[in-house]
Amino acid sequence: MFGKLFKKKENNPIQKLSFENYLATVVDIHAELPKSTVTVKEQMDIIFSDTSDFTERKFHLKSGRSVYICYFSALISQPQLEASVIKPLIQNDVNFRDADDLGNILSVTKYEQTVNWKGTVENILDGNIVLHIDQLNPIILFLAEKTGRNPTDPTTEYQVYGAKFGFIEDSRKNIGIMRQFIKDPRLKSRAYDIGVVSKKQAAILYLEQYCQPEVVEHLDSLLNSYNKEHLQSIGQLSKYISKHPNSLFPQATMSERPDLVSFALVQGKVVIFIDGSAFCAITPITFMDLLETSEDHFFLSRWNLLFIRFLRIVSMFIGTILPALYVSLVAFQPELIPTTLTISVAQARVQIPLPATAEAFLMMFALDVLIEASLRLPSFVGQTIGIVGGLVIGTAAVEAGLVSHTMVIVIAFTAVATFTSPSWEFVSTWRIIRYLLVAIAAMLGLYGLVLAVGFLLVHLCKLDSMNKPYMYPLAPFDGKELKAFFFPKR
Amino acid sequence: MNIQSPYTRIGGVELFTFTYCSAVTIGFIFLPYISSEEIRSAWLKVIVAVIPYLLFIYLYKKVVTKHNDRDVLHLFKDMTSPWIYYFVITYLFASTIYSIFFGTKGLIIIVQTYLMQDTPQWTIGMFFLLVIGLSASYGIHAITRMIVIIFFHEIILFISLVLFIFSDDFKWINIPPFLTVDIGTFLVSSISEVTRYGGIIALFAYLPFVDKKVKVFRPITLSVIFIMFTYFLICLVTLGVFGFDQALTMLSPVTALMQTTTSPTGLFERLDLFFLTVWVMSFFKIGLIFVWFSSMLLKEIIPLKVKNYWVQIWIIITISTLIVISTPSIVNLDWRPYNINMLSYTLFVPVMMFLYLLIRKKQGVGQNENKSQ
Question: Where are the membrane-spanning stretches (chain A) (predicted)?
């Protein structure tokens, strides 16, 4: 039933949304460009009408032949255009017989002849330059220079030992960064333009012979069939490639750390980069992958790694189940906990007007509001919000008699435990599940909680990421892999 | 595009855990003195009781070897007349529904006794069957994987039972068997113990899903022996701690065992209640297995498209829910009809099927000879 519910629809690209249709109203998109500069300019003026940043330059060679150059001024290197293209053309009086002769004059790294209108316009939009000498085939000069920044420290994935080096918003440069980490000819990449309108550059990166070829082909077909107008973020793409997009659990993970990505590539995973995002998506992933970081391998003692991973698993359980367990124990089975603790809890709750369930919901909601608020604000204000909010929740709410001390302790410990997980996406998932478990515990106590956990486990066992079971190596059971997770080989 | 996954196979580990979990739950919780047929030597009876099921496995293996097909139900369908086949399948289906009903009632008794005294049985039963229905809809691979993950539960319980033998509460003097009755009476009273292994009937539908390279009968036999050891340990420890007279009056001796260990200064004052959550999970597992098994049987009776697998599940859930909520709460479980039916549909009928299939010639053999004549 759920397989059908979660099945991805295979849509055909909606042609009317693509820019090809718009272009086809002006020119034959598959036709070659005419050899007359005047005609080409006229057509370009129509295509890029009302486009203030579209720049054209026209001049004559000493021989009298006209030269036409067009580009988007903000996307190219103007000094390089001047030095490598315009100056050599003006200074050298060469009688060009065909476009190949230009290679002897121009000092650009790469150029190629235009094929058709569609490709030419795509190249201009991509930041390249069209150079057309009258009666010759127009050529594309690859002199794009997009605005970018230098790699900086990762801002969201903090690590003690890991590399202080994060991705930037340029997919090609990010692939270049990865080539510094993995110097192997088997590191392959495939490029895509995703989004019918946005044509955002994307790329998949994988290690041949490490990665399952079917996964690459499957991703390839999915990315080629992306038919929405706009691709906004890597998260949007991750949802698109997920087999179970309605599940709460992420089936791809995101990272801004090249060291983590290189670790993932060696594990046989595929990495997706898109322009405009400093994060990449990694797939396929398992439950266990979401609990590990590349930094774990920095520990000099293997026992540290074992301890850290065990700690994360236990923390995940605590962070998810503790509020629901507290509610079921207080509301349904107080006899389960020691008498002295029961008395303490009862004394703490004696002045509280709310039932334990409402108390738990209130506190969890307040905590999530605080987290969300501190995320959206600049760091200095965010910290203040955290302190003020913490004080309000921790002290004022207790003194006002709205919540009990024990509930504050439970929720605080829950919050701290949850954040031991390295994946923020995963933390968010457990946050939602926490609410659901509290709701069930409020209705049916420990009995309901156990059955809900059982259902959750079956759901997790049903999930897969690119056909890799989510709970691997626990189920299907693979003792060697499981041992390697907790106690990797030297 | 369909990615060929090397992880979708069901292997030996999965088969071992499935066999164990399909049989162990109810026997575990209510062992040893819940049946009216009991005599004092329960620990000896559970050992004797495994023998018919070892015979079951032996015959099953012989059938599979002879016909080179693990799908016994389809073999039976091909080699017998339709009315016999549909009669047997319908009987198996009805009995499985009866087991689901009895299991749910057992769960309701446990939950109402220990966890939720004031909650009506329909709330407990309906929620249980609803969650089972939702979970079973995910299919056998998800169910199998879940069972493997939860298997640590059984290991914890097994270790706990072993540790009891070394506790001060355990007294060896309570253990020696009372064989004052004749062997005939002993064997007759062992019938109730035999049914504790009956859950392995679900293997009929499960084995065709197991990877063909896996030697299936080794994990199944090991699992049944492990079940026998678990039952043996429960009987031994219960008798050793409580003695015969006291244990006879308990609803769930294992739960009572857990109560004896709890320290009032520990984290959990009532460890038995904590273990009750383990029982609930065990009921959940066996419920999943039997709902899935009955859906497979229903498919044999009313062939439905594979895509509509969830329809079969929800038919089973609806039937079970209606039976559970329309019948009164059971105060004293009468195990006799349940045990007799269990013995019939999990042992007698399958053994008859195996013998019939062993007598019949292998499919295809002799057909060419007839044609040439």
Answer: 310-332, 387-420, 432-458
Tell me phi and psi for residue A271, to 5 degrees. -115, 135
Supply the pTM of this predicted model: 0.83
DSSP per residue, B235-290: HHHHHHHHHHHHHTT-S-HHHHHHHHH--TTSS-S-HHHHHHHHHHHHHHHHHHHH
- Contact A466/B at CB under 8 A: yes
* Contact flag A462-B139 (C-beta cutoff 8 Å): yes
Choosing among A458, A466, A480, A482, which should be mutated to test the B contact, i.e. which has the most B CBs within 10 A?
Answer: A458
B123:A451 CB<8 A: no
The pLDDT of A299-315, averaged and rounded, is 87
Of B115, B123, B307, the CB nearest to A333: B115
Average pLDDT estimate for B210-219: 88
CB contact under 8 A, B135 and A455: yes
Contacts of B118 (CB under 8 A, 6+ apart): none
Q: What is the DSSP string of B17-83?
A: HHHHHHHHHHHHHH-SS-STT--S-HHHHHHHHHHHHHHHHHHHHHHHHHHT-S-HHHHHHHHS-HH
Residue type, position B315, single letter: I
Tokens 């065909």 correspond to: A98
pLDDT of residue B132: 95
Domains, in order of start, for chain B: 12-358 (1.20.1740.10)
Backbone φ and ψ for B97, nearest 5 degrees, come out as: -60, -40
Mutate to test the interface with B, among A223, A247, A336 (most CBs of B within 10 A): A336
Q: Which residues from B are below 8 Å from A468, CB to CB?
A: 5, 7
Of the partner residues A336, A454, A458, the one whose CB lies closest to the CB of residue B269: A336
Pairing, β A253-255 against β A464-465: unpaired
Selected residue of B8, B110, B138 to mutate for chain A interface (largest A Cβ count, 10 A): B138
List b or e across A428-464, with b for residues whose CB sees 16 or more CB atoms inside 10 angstroms: bbbbebbbebbbbbbbbbbbbbbbbbbbbbbbbbbbb
**Which of the given ranges, A408-417, B23-32, B128-137, has the highest pLDDT on average?**
B128-137
The phi, psi pair for B127, rounded to 5°, reads -65, -40
Q: Report CB contact under 8 Å: B146, A458.
A: yes
pLDDT of residue A408: 87
Please tell me the least confidently modeled range out of A124-138, A443-457, B1-15, B289-303: B1-15
Task: Identify the closest residue of chain B to A476 by CA–CA distance.
Answer: B145
Predicted confidence band at A6 (pLDDT cuts at 50, 70, 90)? very low
Model ipTM value = 0.87
Rounded (5°) CA angle B121-B122-B126:
120
If contacts are CB pairs under 8 Å, which of residues 310-329 in chain B contact chain A? 310, 313
8 Å CB contact of B146 and A2: no
Task: Report pLDDT for B93.
Answer: 94
Domain ranges in chain A are 31-141, 171-285, 299-483
Torsion from C-alpha of A155, A157, A159, A164, nearest 10 degrees: -50
pLDDT category, B362, cuts 50, 70, 90? Answer: confident
Interface of A with B in 315-354 (CB under 8 A): 332-333, 335-339, 342
Distance from CA of A365 to the nearest CA of B (A): 27
Percent of chain B with pLDDT strictly greater than 70 = 77
B248-257 residue pLDDT tens: 666 666 777 7
Interchain contact, B115 vs A455, CB within 8 Å? no
φ/ψ bin of A176: left (φ > 0), alpha (ψ from -120 to 50), beta (otherwise):
alpha
Alpha-carbon torsion angle A437, A443, A445, A447, nearest 10: -90
